[in-house]
Amino acid sequence: MTYFIQFFTLDYWFGFPPLITTPWLVILLVKYVALFFGGIAALMFYPKIEDRFTRQVTRRAGSGAIWLGVCGLFLTFSRFERVPVFMYRYWFLFIAIAFVVWLVRLYKYAVQRREKLDEETRTYQTKEKYLRK
């Protein structure tokens, strides 16, 4: 319980952090490298996707994953090298908030775009029955 309370102190977020240990370094590196290369894979394969909706969502997800992966790798490297400005814990909090905001915006875009495409499909189908063949 006392470990959880330290998250609410300013010294935890803005104080001089301890050296990063090897297991945490490996976990952070694997997480951000996977995010980076997952984004690259999504951007490489999105032109091959036939469905327009899925292609657009994949493109947005891939570019966001690359940016978050690069920022996370930069912060992990800065933390490991003890760069004075970028080694504090609040930067990782900003990355976590950016990740959640990115996921919410991607979800909202996907839902709104799907509704719009469904409406366009219904409109096209109703107009198509009156056109000559």
Distance between the termini: 72 Å
Order of helices and strands: HHHHH
Mean pLDDT comes to: 84
What is the general shape? elongated
Strand content: under 5%
Estimated radius of gyration: 22 Å
Spans where pLDDT lies below 50 across 5 or more residues: none
Largest sheet: none
Our count of helices gives 5
Query: Would you count the extended β strands for me?
Result: 0
Number of folding domains?
1
Helical content stands at over 70%
Task: Give the class from helix and strand content and strand pairing.
Answer: mainly alpha
Overview of the molecule:
This protein has 133 residues and is mainly α. It has helices spanning 2-5, 10-14, 22-45, 52-81, 90-128. α3 runs antiparallel to α4 and α4 (52-81) packs antiparallel against α5. The chain is elongated, with a radius of gyration of 22 Å. The termini are far apart. The model has no long low-confidence stretch (mean pLDDT 84).
Give a quick precis of the structure.
The protein is mainly alpha-helical. 77% of the residues lie in helices and 0% in strands. It is elongated, with a radius of gyration of 22 Å.
Structure keywords:
single chain; 133 residues; 77% helix; elongated
List the helices and strands and how they pair.
Layout: H1 2-5, H2 10-14, H3 22-45, H4 52-81, H5 90-128
Helix pairs in contact: 3-4, 4-5
